[in-house]
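User: quick one, fold this
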Amino acid sequence: MKSQKVNCPDCKTEISYEDLKAYFGHNFIEDLNDELLKIRILEDSNMVQCTCKNFIEVVPGSVDYKQKDEEGNKISRAAAEHMATYRVRCNNCDRIFCSNCNNEPYHIGKT
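Assistant:
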């Protein structure tokens, strides 16, 4: 990540990264960096975060118009398109969820 300059809000003097770590502590700065990175990753509309903290790129799949719901009924055209667009499987924990509403498990045919 590109380094950002930090200036004192009062005197506008530039504060070094080492000074920030000395004042706030290494763990605080690392946690802050992690949160800033998370925000930047999630700003990309193709990225979601699983409950296991893994980041996943959402890549629409091909639409299966013959897909059936849990009861064996054919799902609607809109539901099949929604599934191809928003259904995600985490490659870390295998959680299957909707990247649009974060519902788990993914709600087949309930769109």
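User: anything notable?
Assistant: The first helix runs from residue 17 to 24.
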